[in-house]
Amino acid sequence: MKSFTYERARQPAEAAAAAARTQGAKFIAGGTNLLDLMKLEIETPTHLIDVNGLAFDKIEPTPDGGLRIGALVRNTDLAADARVRRDYAVLSRALLAGASGQLRNKATTAGNLLQRTRCPYFYDTNQPCNKRQPGSGCSAIGGINRQQAVVGASDACIATHPSDMAVAMRALDATVETVRPDGGARQIPIAEFHRLPGDTPNVETALDPGELITAVTLPPPLGGKHLYYKVRDRASYAFALISVGAIVQPDGSGRVALGGVASKPWRIEAAEAELPRGAEAVTAKLLADAKPTSQNDFKLPLVKRTLAAVLAEARG
Amino acid sequence: MPNSRDPDVFRRDLLVSAAASAAVMTAPSLAGAQQAGSAVPAMKVSFTVNGKTRDLQVDTRTTLLDALRESLHLVGTKKGCDHGQCGACTVIVDGRRINSCLTLAVMHQGGSITTVEGLGTPDKLHPMQAAFVKHDGYQCGYCTPGQICSAVAVLGEIEAGIPSHVSTDLNVKPQATAAEFRERMSGNICRCGAYSNIVEAITEVAGRKA
Asked: Coil, strand or helix: which one is A255?
């Protein structure tokens, strides 16, 4: 690990300003992904700003009847919150499907959104990777890519976003709240938060340098049945091959977001109009532009079958 | 004669026996390789370990795991993968189990840490330690301190009503079942495969508590 200086942030805008003006600075909260990457020298910050002392650890009702989740709320606490379990069960289910108990106790809401891909070539510093080292090439294209993206990828990168939580946040249409280095606040719809790789896969989110996430807000409860199905190589503690987060209303309408298929939670609102016609019709629209590899083309039928199982359970 | 428990001396001995270079010897590091002569950011941090206040001066890179093992000589907590994948380093911090390899010592100013040494002693085992012995919940024993810290915290999490992936109804208090233990212990890997006996040990302690 490269050496770094360390400070504890006392005030959000100050922390954002310090991050923007300090070359090589990074925020640290749970640290479960950042320290992993620092040990491998994939992340090499020269200064860490510990934001754990900022008072972003509460879940509070919003005036319009939604919930405001502080950026530092731990994954365990978010999944266990009685309001989330009752009104946003897709979010509890997604969180509980991810990581281990130890990691969920540390990992934060904001950090979960910001975690990096688990593409093996991103992790292997001996191999080219455009995300880790822009311009060096993509080893996953033509390499071992069973886990990688089937839709929204580019010639530069086929990595997936590993988060389960973000898939549920996308189904719920959450909003990411930030504070900027100039002290101003910004709201970013979750749909616009994560980026497709294009030719700059190293740029993963809509955040500007120094911009600090303060909260994620959920709209008022949507009702319906909330389901999150995750298919993985082990029964527990493994990243998704694919996952389906869904909110299905009694009349058969609803929302569907996918994990494990793209560099961001994958949701196409127009595909949801097909819900009354069943999983095959929805999947056909969701993955119309899919370009799988010979190793991961199993993800297309797997999405269809998993969505069919989700819809069958929703119908009860 | 220097105290053989001194961490720098201890490390130096290891490094000498491993034919380490003189440059490394002059700048022993708890946190991995570094350049000799470069300024290494160090910080003071103070936290409680097993009820005792400990004051340390550490390289900022020092993980909580390395601080416990190398600085405080609490070697019950084990380093397995050092990347949060195996759970051997599990300790209980401020009442919660975490991977001590994926957190920095300096992030725990004022914190309260319990390691396996703080749960019980050879003369007075924690019920979970006694149950692991009784049910043969280990072979080589390397993952055992992490398994035990994790298992103690798991029973607390179930008691607190925290749901898991296998909890069928999110709005009903989870039960202390074998299925729940298996899911909740999935962050603790046992290369010897003592899993079924570990589940039996936890089941016995859960029953005793009920």
From this structure: strand
The pTM is what? 0.93
A contacts of B170 (beta carbons < 8 Å): 85-86, 89, 92-93
Give the minimum alpha-carbon distance from A99 to chain B in angstroms, rounded to a whole number: 8
Across the interface, of B61, B84, B157, the residue whose CB is closest to A3 is: B61
Phi, psi of B47 (to 5 degrees): -150, 170
* Tokens standing for residue B38: 């470069």
| Domains along the sequence of chain B with CATH | 42-118 (3.10.20.30), 120-210 (1.10.150.120)
Q: What is the pLDDT along chain A (316 residues), one digit of tens a residue?
A: 999 999 999 999 999 999 999 999 999 999 999 999 999 999 999 999 999 999 999 999 999 999 999 999 999 999 999 999 999 999 999 999 999 999 999 999 999 999 999 999 999 999 999 999 999 999 999 999 999 999 999 999 999 999 999 999 999 999 999 999 999 999 999 999 999 999 999 999 999 999 999 999 999 999 999 999 999 999 999 999 999 999 999 999 999 999 999 999 999 999 999 999 999 999 999 999 999 999 999 999 999 999 999 999 999 8
User: Does residue A159 contact residue A147 with C-beta atoms inside 8 Å?
Assistant: no
B79: left (phi over 0), alpha (psi -120 to 50) or beta: beta
Q: Taking every pair of C-alpha atoms in chain A, what is the biggest distance, in angstroms?
A: 57
Residue A297 touches chain B, beta carbons under 8 Å: no
- DSSP-derived letter for residue A231 is E
The ipTM, to two decimals, is: 0.97
Q: DSSP of chain B, one letter per residue?
A: ---TT-HHHHHHHHHHHTT--HHHHHS--SSS---TTS---EEEEEEEETTEEEEEEEETT-BHHHIIIIIS--TTS--SSSSSSS-TTEEEETTEEEEGGGSBGGGGTT-EEE-HHHH--SSS--HHHHHHHHTT--SS-SSHHHHHHHHHHHHHHHHTT---TT-S-TTSPPP--HHHHHHHTTTS--TT--HHHHHHHHHHHHHHH-
Interface test with A, best of B40, B90, B102 (most A CBs within 10 A): B102
Q: Does A24 touch chain B (CB under 8 A)?
A: no
Q: Note whether A35 contacts B104, CB cutoff 8 Å.
A: yes
